From TrEMBL:
One of its GO terms (molecular function) is ATP binding. Keywords: ATP-binding, Cytoplasm, Kinase, Lipid biosynthesis, Lipid metabolism, Magnesium, Nucleotide-binding, Transferase. Residues 76-151 form the GHMP kinase N-terminal domain. It comes from Enterococcus quebecensis. InterPro entries: GHMP_kinase_C_dom, GHMP_kinase_C_sf, GHMP_kinase_N_dom, Mev_gal_kin, Ribosomal_Su5_D2-typ_SF, Ribsml_uS5_D2-typ_fold_subgr. The lineage of its organism: Bacteria, Bacillati, Bacillota, Bacilli, Lactobacillales. The keyword Cytoplasm applies. This is Mevalonate kinase. It comes from the Bacteria. Pfam families: GHMP_kinases_C (PF08544), GHMP_kinases_N (PF00288).
């Protein structure tokens, strides 16, 4: 047992700007690490294997089913490190609201893997990290595209295409501010992804049109970002929301907050992440206006809001 060492692992939340759901079908998506929120994991020596987190505190062998992906990632990481017999205390703390489309499950897995590698003083490059997190994400989400894993483990905005090498790009729209608002309702990524898959099987022609259109809008958004054009970006976000509604992944609360943001002058607004709850995002062109929209969203029932400037050099 390593008595001196404490291991630390960190991962951020993520925001998908454009391309959720269609990314599962090979279309591109734009996402960035959301540094306002994070998960950290502390690893210490202990005489029995224990886990301490918001949902559970106790013996590793009694971890509830709800935390199956956490249990899996710890087990698999210890196997990868050839340390299966070590006993540790693993403490996870988080400021990422769980199940709100901010990538909390991927971020938890990333921080755990990093914490365990750090504890054993083993470097943790993406080649070691990503397969372990992907395995946990398959348990948490069924058929993940990998975007959550990529965005929560990196520190740059991504133009992400499933199965392709990671492409970062400069998300630098001057005078653009993104408001992120939490509906307070747990999102249902797994169910939403699986329902879209069923719809796709039932009516390939109709659903693939929505998916292709989401891909096109994501490319439009990328060009708008590169051209420093917040208005075109906002427009693409509004159109994407319509497509996501057609895929049945929005819901009443998300639609209401999107409407509030638009009524208060947002350039664009849409859900972010898996949908059916979770968070929405809105775009505007001044910090002052962003605050006004955030206040309006809170009055309309958002339980938390964040403001993220996009006009920074990434
Ligand atoms: C979830 O954050 C994003 C989805 O597109 C699912 C995925 O890409 O794995 C809904």
């Amino acid at each position: 047992m390593n008595k001196e060492k404490i291991g630390h692992g960190l991962a951020t939340g993520k925001i998908i700007l454009m391309g959720e759901h269609s990314v599962v079908y090979g279309e591109p998506a734009i996402a960035f690490p959301f540094k306002e929120t994070y998960i950290s994991t502390k690893v210490e020596p202990e005489t029995v294997m224990t886990l301490d987190c918001h949902y559970y505190s106790g013996d590793f062998s009694n971890i509830p089913q709800q935390l199956k992906s956490v249990k899996e990632v710890i087990t698999q990481t210890l196997i990868a490190l050839h340390k299966e017999t070590t006993t540790l205390k693993i403490t996870i703390t988080s400021t990422i609201p769980a199940e709100r489309g901010m990538g909390s499950s991927a971020a938890a897995a990333v921080s755990i893997v990093r914490g365990l590698f750090d504890y054993f003083d083993v470097p943790c490059p993406p080649e070691a990290l990503l397969p372990l997190v992907t395995r946990a994400e398959k348990i948490a989400h069924g058929n993940p595209s990998g975007i959550d894993t990529a965005a929560t483990s990196g520190n740059k905005p991504l133009f992400f295409i499933k199965g392709h090498p990671l492409e970062t790009f400069p998300m630098n729209v001057s005078n653009a501010y993104l408001i992120v608002a939490d509906t307070g309702i747990k999102g249902q990524t797994r169910a939403a992804v699986s329902d879209v898959a069923h719809l796709f099987e039932e009516n390939k022609q109709k659903i693939s049109k929505h998916i292709t259109e989401l891909g096109r809008l994501t490319r439009v958004a990328k060009q708008a970002i590169l051209a420093d054009d917040a208005h075109t970006l906002g427009n693409a976000m509004n159109q994407a929301q319509e497509q996501l509604q057609a895929l049945t992944v929005s819901n009443h609360r998300l639609d209401e907050l999107v409407k509030t943001a638009r009524e208060n002058g947002a350039l664009g607004a849409k859900l972010t992440g898996g949908g059916r709850g979770g968070c929405m995002i809105a775009l505007t062109d001044s910090n002052e206006h962003a605050r006004k929209i955030a206040t309006a969203l809170e009055k309309s029932g958002a339980v938390a809001t964040w403001i993220q400037p996009l006009g920074v050099k990434n």
